[in-house]
Design goal:
Layout (H helix, E strand, L loop, with lengths): L1 E3 H4 L10 H10 L3 E7 L6 E12 L2 E10 L4 E6 L9 E5 L4 E2 L3 E2 L3 E3 L2 E3 L2 E2 L39 E6 L10 H12 L22 E3 L7 E13 L3 H9 L7 H13 L2 E6 L10 E9 L2 E6 L2 E5 L3 E2 L11 E9 L1 H8 L9 H7 L5 H15 E5 L4 E3 L7 E5 H8 L5 H10 L3 E4 L4 E5 L10 H12 L19 H18 L3 E2 L5 E2 L1 H6 L21 E2 L4 H13 L4 E11 L5 E11 L17 H12 L3 E4 L7 E11 L2 E9 L1 H7 L4 E7 H4 L15 E10 L4 H8 L7 E10 L7 E10 L8 H19 L2 E2 L1
Parallel strand pairs: 13-16, 26-29
Antiparallel strand pairs: 1-12, 2-12, 3-4, 3-6, 4-5, 6-11, 7-8, 9-10, 14-20, 14-21, 14-22, 15-20, 16-17, 17-18, 18-19, 23-25, 24-25, 27-28, 29-30, 30-34, 31-32, 32-33, 33-34, 35-37, 35-38, 36-37
Helix pairs in contact: 3-10, 4-5, 5-8, 9-11, 12-15, 18-19
């Protein structure tokens, strides 16, 4: 954003503010100054009045001018074609030294004496205002022949380029920047007053109509006018050049000037584009979709509010019947809507999408003042309006909370004053609390932290007293700390069990996940800009990442690769969960004397023991999970507290071959299911317990899980523990097998007697006979 000092001065009095103060203030309030350039016009460059202009006798492209420069009339030869249209010009008299160390001397051009030079803007160090010389008018101030050109503040101006963050669309105008300066410098804004001269008393409703169609998202104001002649203003040209705004044509320049000054999005149409068969101008804003408001004229889409305007309906210097439009639409709504379309966007879309000024009446009034000054215009009375009923965001502001965030005591009255100057609506809610109504041009303000940021930047970060850091510790134990502690415990136990921690991206390759039968994120919710082709989606399992790490380690000639990782995985709707994953590939131990240099390869039992050493006790039941990594015969579900929370399996042989790795076992568990639960303490017995073994014959197809499930239904207080110790099969048993189960029996009240033990074992045997068809061996 580029502003000039004199342009800012039209909205706020900067007469007692130096450029150094401006520079420091801008930086302190978050409008970082990228560059600041004080324009200096060379001495002896004065305002001259052309008395006569004749063709050079020996050169077709030269003119011989008689120019009054205050100290007398000078004859000057000029090669600019537009000099014949000029009355007042900037003249470098003899003795002036222009930029580039170019000294003006007496000269003779094609035999004609010349005593000076009529200047173009670029020859004086000003931005280029177009071809030819500068044609001056009183838009820069009263023109006095012989007055130093550099004495005009609007000419010898200060150009300031500001770096704005993306959320500061409110400062994409001279008025918006002046508003921030008003609060920071504690200087009141100058009121803008303009009483429009209604030359044409005909009301707009007699010539034009507005019919909205659908639910409107945009505020729209329309003004009708007839224009007979439009003049070129030097100040408009000069300032637009200073702020690097390109505009072709006089009317377009005035519109661009008004938009840059006020921040209101202004457009001008040839009103004939809206005129129907009855000769009436009919404007129809139509809501095509949320955030997309089409402006219809004679069934044709002529523009989209805040986005574009068809070139053929844009008013130009030849247009006599104008329809002026001011518009505002919430930038968040607009950007979200436009991003899903292929709509063409013009230069004004940038301002609209960042946040334009919603004060449409101010924008139209400012434009009217410019047109009245530089054109012969007649405006119809009144306007056609679309006003959207918007809910203003309200933030409750407590002085103590602001003070705590800022780091110094800030009185509620000062907070209220700062916010009011920034355009917030303030209402008191108590001794130390106010409600701040957020203005529409600050759509980025959502909560108290945003308000605190506004207070800090206006007070100035350098004005906040430095204080020593105070750290007052207090109990902060909560679910987050419990989770962190549990995670740290799992990691420590995993390292103790011989695993190495793996850390990988939360991304994976969609093709691999689909190949192995894992769910994938819906394409509408997937990554729009992946960091790499092979990391093009959010992972739904960590196992694929661990297998890639295993393959890399195998290629490094590692013979034992035990890895684990705790991390996030995502479902098809991007729902997030956390899992604990293991992979163990190759040898269980290193090569040493105890194993004669031939260590065992990892197997199901040893892998299960290592996982159990990390996560604690769990049960294994037949596997119900389905994916391409699971071995069809060596796999199981992991059950914790009676719920399936994951699976443990040997890697499928085909996958093992694809990765070209040795025998590998993998496991993945839901981390939340492993979190330690609060367990109330239970008393322990001071009496001795007894272990009893029981061998039974059961059907060969029955597994121990079914036997244990039946025994766990027994409600025997003295039966403390049950676990298998032997399974035996041979030809003599036929379709049966022998199962030996060990029971631990203990009483809380007394030393066990034989009758107590027999009673327990009798109920156990009855259960086995009934539920499992078991026979005593």
């Amino acid at each position: 954003m580029i502003v000039t000092r004199s342009w800012l001065n039209e909205f706020i009095d900067l007469s007692n503010v130096s450029n150094e103060t401006l520079y420091e203030t801008f930086n302190s309030i978050g409008l970082e100054v990228d560059s600041i350039n004080q324009i200096e016009i060379a001495q002896k460059v004065v305002v001259g009045k052309i008395l006569s202009c004749e063709k050079h006798p020996d050169a077709d492209k030269l003119n011989v001018c008689q120019i009054d420069v205050g100290s007398g009339t000078r004859q000057i030869v000029c090669g600019a074609a537009n000099v014949i249209d000029a009355e007042y010009v900037a003249v470098a008299t003899i003795g002036a030294v222009l930029p580039g160390d170019f000294a003006i001397k007496h000269a003779k051009l094609r035999g004609v004496e010349s005593e000076g030079m009529v200047c173009a803007s670029s020859e004086l160090g000003l931005p280029n205002t177009g071809k030819g010389i500068m044609i001056l008018d009183e838009s820069i101030g009263e023109l006095e022949v012989g007055r130093e050109f550099g004495s005009y503040e609007t000419v010898a101006d200060t150009i300031i380029e500001l770096e704005l963050t993306a959320n500061r669309g409110d400062c994409l105008s001279i008025y918006g920047v002046a508003r921030d300066l008003s609060s920071a410098l504690d200087i009141e804004m100058k009121p803008f007053e303009y009483k429009e001269a209604e030359k044409m008393k005909l009301g707009i409703a007699r010539d034009a109509e507005l019919h909205s169609d659908g639910e409107m998202d945009a505020d729209l104001y329309y003004k009708r006018a007839t224009i007979n002649d439009i003049n070129n203003s030097f100040l408009v040209q000069l300032r637009l050049a200073m702020v690097s705004v390109e505009a072709e044509g006089k009317l377009v320049s005035v519109l661009a000037y008004a938009t840059h000054a006020t921040g209101v999005i202004l457009r001008a149409y040839d009103s004939d584009a809206f005129r129907n068969e009855e000769g009436k101008v009919v404007v129809t804003p139509r809501a095509k979709a949320k955030g997309i408001i089409e402006i219809i004229g004679n069934t044709q889409v002529l523009s989209v509010a805040g986005v574009n305007q068809k070139e053929e309906v844009i008013a130009n210097d030849e247009t006599k019947e104008l329809l002026l439009e001011a518009s505002y639409i919430n930038p968040d709504t607009l950007v979200e809507a436009v991003s899903t379309t292929s709509l063409k966007r013009d230069d004004l879309y940038y301002k609209t999408s960042r946040g334009s000024n919603p004060d449409l009446r101010f924008g139209l009034t400012f434009l009217a003042s410019l047109l009245d000054r530089y054109t012969d215009i007649n405006c119809y009375e009144g306007s056609l309006n679309v006003d959207v009923d918007r809910e203003h965001e309200t933030v409750i502001v407590e002085a103590s909370e602001i003070s705590a965030i800022v780091g110094m005591d800030v009185e509620i009255s000062k907070i209220a004053t700062i916010l009011q100057k920034l355009g917030f609506e303030i209402s008191s809610m108590g001794h130390d609390i106010i409600a701040a109504g957020v203005p529409l041009f600050r759509h980025d303000i959502k909560h108290i932290q945003d308000i605190a940021e506004e207070i800090v930047r206006i007070i100035g970060i350098n004005n906040i007293e430095a204080k020593p850091f105070v750290f007052a510790e207090k109990a902060r134990l909560n679910d987050t700390t419990d989770r962190y502690k549990a995670k740290k415990g799992f990691k420590n136990r995993a390292v103790g069990a011989g695993f190495y921690e793996n850390v990988s991206y939360v991304f994976s390759e969609r093709a691999l996940l689909e190949k192995y039968g894992f769910p994938t994120v819906e394409e509408a919710l997937d990554l729009s800009n992946p960091i790499a082709e092979e990391l093009n989606t959010l992972r739904s399992t960590i196992l694929v990442n661990l297998l890639n790490a295993t393959r890399r380690n195998v290629s490094y000639t590692k013979k034992s690769i035990p890895l684990f990782e705790i991390g996030a995985v995502f479902g098809s709707n991007r729902e997030q969960a956390e899992v604990l994953s293991f992979v163990f590939c190759g040898q269980v131990d290193g090569e040493n004397v105890s194993n004669a240099g031939k260590p065992k390869m990892i197997d199901f039992a040893s892998f299960t023991q290592k996982v159990g050493a990390v996560v604690g006790a769990f049960d294994l039941v037949p596997c119900t999970h389905e994916n391409g990594l699971i071995h069809p015969y060596q796999s199981a579900d992991i059950v914790v507290d009676g719920k399936v929370c994951g699976f443990l399996t040997k890697l499928h042989p085909t996958v093992q071959d694809e990765y070209d790795i040795p025998e590998t076992f993998i496991a993945e568990l839901d981390f939340d299911a492993l979190l330690p639960k609060h367990i109330n303490a239970k008393p322990i017995s001071k009496f001795q317990g007894v272990y009893k073994d029981l061998s039974v014959v059961i059907d060969k197809s029955m597994n121990y899980y079914e036997v244990a499930k039946a025994l766990n239904t027994l409600e025997l207080p003295m039966l403390k523990d049950i676990y298998p110790v032997d399974i035996y099969e041979d030809e003599k048993l036929g379709e049966k097998k022998s199962l030996t189960i060990r029971f631990f029996i203990q009483s809380m009240e007394k030393t066990l007697e034989e009758s107590d033990i027999e009673a327990v074992m009798s109920q156990v045997m009855t259960c086995l006979e009934t539920e499992c068809k078991a026979e005593l061996r």
